[in-house]
Every structure is written in structure tokens, then in C-alpha cells.
From TrEMBL:
Organism ancestry: Bacteria, Pseudomonadati, Pseudomonadota, Gammaproteobacteria, Alteromonadales
Protein name: Tetratricopeptide repeat protein
UniProt entry keywords in alphabetical sequence: TPR repeat
TPR repeats: 199-232
Annotated PROSITE patterns: PROKAR_LIPOPROTEIN (PS51257), TPR (PS50005)
Organism: Shewanella jiangmenensis
Source domain of life: Bacteria
Length: 455
């Protein structure tokens, strides 16, 4: 029968996306996040790596790279991230619509958005290059680290231009329902107004520029980070210090606002802490049933629910004096804002899908009546299929942190044992050098990785 052929075509178009078609992506990732909070963080790598050749390979490559990174395997992480970067580049290079692209779009009209190959929001792509830079840095491949931080900065500029061009089209697509949901997501995101402006990314790129001797570039990135996320005392001190050292005209202004620069003693080194905490929130679905032409249809939308609140600062003991971290970015707010930015286009696809499903159901019902002169179970089956197949697209990079915090302190050279929440890490501070400590808090564990860099 024709309707069976159509359903078969729809499912075949789903291809490798079937994993997320009826089983939500957050459910699939739950064991991975549990492993990252356990003593065996690398256990899920094999299963994630198997999916890199699938339709959602870009997403799985990002997840695999992050899992390897949290577990301390920076070489493997670098390879997985490179696969994700290559996937993004293939999207960029696609000048014409391919056969597979047509199939995915057609499948999404009959099934749901999970059929569309995953291409992450801009902030995920920026963080991919930021994390790749840290992989290079931890392996002392400094040239590679600089290439990646420059790419991260370029992408933030490109995303800003792309979003500026899309504002008019976003306004044109909005309606009362869209506006209400966007307003709600905006309240959840707080002061974050754009997903592509990431203070943590700018701070990390600035820090790497500074550690690798490019202080002018560092100053520029620190200023951008401070504009995006004002009020961080460590970032403010970085601005005063570099403005003074580089004889920048803003030095007097920064000095009056933030106090004069604190400079090291002759025998001092510096400890710099990047602390990542928790996991970004998962999307959840809102499903709304309604009827068109007396047939049941549903629309299922991704959203974020509840109030996530603020994570408290961490207290670091074991140094010259206790040190309290300060937030540099709320990654959860970036994720919420990215969905808010995508919502108008998402609803356009939903409207097209509802219409396509309605017309398909009416066609099946019409054929059934012609063949039997009565309504049979075919139309009912189609309505059930429409309801079951309507699944919100809940895919996102779920092993990203929820929040990033930073702290810096000058210390006399020697050995110190940093302690956060009862978990500790020994570092060797050298005079005239920086000790970068990267802490990743996944709930039950905080894993520390550090490197000494001579200034």
C-alpha cells in the first residue's frame, strides 16, 4: 500500500539517526555522565567512538573528545576533537544540497528533527577549539595551541556577524507563542544575551596568549571577556596589570576602577586555576496535542525547564592564603540562549512537519474510503504513527561543564598542595613561571591537570 511505502521511506531516511529517533539523547548519555563521575571516566569511549561514523558523528566526536579529556588522555581527545572539527568543515564546504541532505530534510518532515544530521550551535564549536587548544597546551605543543585559540576567536566574530544578519528573519518568524517561549528562556539565561559571546573562551584564549608571550593579544582577549562578563576580580586585575605593563592608555581608568596592579616579588611564581563544574542541563520536551481535519497531531518542542541557580564559589586551601574562585561564564546560560536563538527556525520546521503529516493522514484516509467505502484502521494507524514519531530534538553536547570559574595567586617558589572540597593536587611553583591548574568537577570527583610554563 502507498502509505506503508511512505512510512518505509520515512524510516529509511532516518538512517543512522534512529538512535535518537525514539530514545532521547539525554537518556543515551546518562551512563556516560555517570562514568565521568566515577573512578573509570574512560569506560564509555569505545561506545562513543563507534558512533563517530554515524549521521550524528560530529556530536559523538565532541562527546568522545571531552570524555578522553576529563580522563586525562589528551592525545586521544585531540584525535576525537579533530574528527569533530573536520565534520564542521565539511558542513562549511557543502555549497550544494547533497542527496543525503535532501533525504534528511524529507525525513524530518515525516518523522522529526532527529533525522537531520547534528550540527551544533556556534558556542559548541567555539568551545571545541578552546578545548583543543588546552589539549595542545597540556602536551606542550604550543604552536598548535595558538592556532586553536586564534580559530576560536575568529569563530566568535563570525557567529556574531551571522546572528546580526539573522535578526530580521527571526523577528519576521516570531508570533505570540514564540515570543512567550523566547521570553521565558531569556529569563532563565539571565544576563546572557547571545550564545556566541563566551567570556570563558575569551579568557582562556587570552590566558594562553599571555602564557606563550603574546601579551598584546592577551590584553585584547581579556578586555573582550570583561565586557561580556563584568565583575570578575581576577580578570579585572589581569586588565590592570597588562595595561600597566604595556603602557596602555586605559591603565589610569582601570586603576581607578579596579585598584592598582598586584605584582609578584622577585622569587614568586604564579598559580592560575581554571575550574569547570558540573554538566550543562539537558533539554526536555514539551508535547502539545491538537487536531487538524479531525485527526490527532502533536508538536514536540525542545526547551529547558526550571531555575538552575548559581553554583557557589570554591575555596582553595593549601596556598599562601585561602583563595576563592570567581565565575567567568555560565555555560548553562549559553546553551539556553542558543536554543532561544534557534527557536523561530525550529518552529518553522515544526509547522511544515505538522502540515505534511496532516496531508499524509488525509491521503491514507481517502484511499481507505475509496477501497472499502468505509473508514478502516489505516488512518488510525497513521494517527498513531504521527503521535509516536513526533519526538523533540534533545541533542546537545552534554559533557560540557555547567559553569567555569577562575582564580590566580602569586606565591613564593616551592611545592604546594591545592585542596578543593577535600580533593587535592600537588603543584610545583617556580620563580618567574606560571603553573596552570585545570580542575574538572564532575560531581563525585575533581580531576586536576597542571603544567608549568616559564614566562
Amino acid at each position: 500500500m502507498r502509505h506503508i511505502a511512505l512510512l518505509t521511506l520515512a524510516f529509511s531516511l532516518g538512517g543512522c539517526a534512529m538512535g535518537s529517533l525514539f530514545i532521547s539523547y539525554p537518556s543515551q548519555m546518562a551512563p556516560v555522565k555517570q562514568a565521568l563521575s566515577s573512578q573509570t571516566p574512560l569506560a564509555p569511549l569505545g561506545d562513543l567512538a563507534k558512533e563517530i561514523d554515524s549521521q550524528d558523528g560530529l556530536l559523538y566526536a565532541q562527546e568522545a573528545g571531552r570524555v578522553a579529556q576529563v580522563g586525562g588522555d589528551f592525545s586521544a581527545s585531540k584525535s576525537y576533537y579533530q574528527a569533530a572539527i573536520a565534520a564542521y568543515n565539511r558542513f562549511d564546504d557543502k555549497a550544494t544540497v547533497s542527496v543525503s541532505g535532501i533525504g534528511a530534510s524529507a525525513g524530518s518532515l515525516v518523522l522529526n528533527d532527529n533525522v537531520i544530521p547534528y550540527r551544533g550551535p556556534g558556542f559548541e564549536r567555539v568551545m571545541l577549539h578552546q578545548y583543543q587548544a588546552l589539549n595542545y597546551l597540556m602536551q606542550r605543543e604550543f604552536d598548535g595551541a595558538l592556532v586553536e585559540v586564534r580559530r576560536a576567536n575568529e569563530l566568535q566574530d563570525l557567529e556574531q556577524k551571522r546572528y546580526a544578519k539573522s535578526k530580521d528573519s527571526v523577528k519576521a518568524m516570531a508570533n505570540g507563542t514564540v515570543d512567550a517561549e523566547m521570553d521565558r528562556l531569556g529569563r532563565e539565561a539571565g544576563s546572557v544575551t547571545s550564545s556566541f559571546m563566551n567570556a570563558y573562551s575569551y579568557y582562556t584564549t587570552g590566558l594562553l596568549h599571555e602564557l606563550l608571550g603574546e601579551e598584546n593579544d592577551a590584553y585584547i582577549d581579556y578586555r573582550k571577556a570583561a565586557q561580556i562578563f563584568p565583575g570578575n576580580p581576577f580578570l579585572e586585575q589581569d586588565l590592570v596589570r597588562l595595561a600597566k605593563k604595556l603602557a596602555m592608555p586605559q591603565y589610569d581608568e582601570f586603576k581607578s576602577r579596579f585598584g592598582d596592579a598586584k605584582l609578584p616579588e622577585a622569587n614568586d611564581g604564579e598559580v592560575i586555576l581554571l575550574l569547570e563544574r558540573g554538566f550543562v542541563p539537558e533539554k526536555r520536551a514539551i508535547t502539545v496535542p491538537f487536531t487538524i481535519h479531525d485527526n490527532w497531531q502533536t508538536v514536540s518542542l525542545p526547551t529547558y525547564g526550571g531555575s538552575y541557580g548559581q553554583l557557589p564559589p570554591a575555596t582553595i586551601s593549601g596556598l599562601k592564603t585561602p583563595l576563592t574562585t570567581a565565575t567567568i561564564a555560565n555555560i548553562d546560560a549559553l546553551a539556553i540562549t542558543a536554543l532561544k536563538e534557534d527557536l523561530p527556525m525550529l518552529l518553522v520546521r515544526q509547522a511544515a512537519r505538522v502540515y505534511a503529516k496532516s496531508e499524509l493522514t488525509r491521503s491514507v484516509e481517502s484511499q481507505s474510503k475509496k477501497q472499502r467505502n468505509d473508514f478502516d484502521g489505516a488512518a488510525i494507524a497513521m494517527q498513531i504513527f504521527n503521535v509516536v514519531s513526533e519526538q523533540a530534538d534533545l541533542r546537545s553536547w552534554l559533557t560540557l561543564p555547567r559553569q567555569a570559574q577562575i582564580a590566580r595567586q602569586y606565591l613564593p617558589q616551592g611545592e604546594y598542595r591545592l585542596s578543593i572540597g577535600g580533593q587535592s593536587h600537588a603543584v610545583q611553583v617556580q620563580a618567574g613561571a606560571a603553573t596552570l591548574v585545570w580542575g574538572i568537577d564532575t560531581g563525585n570527583n575533581i580531576r586536576f591537570y597542571s603544567i608549568n610554563i616559564k614566562k
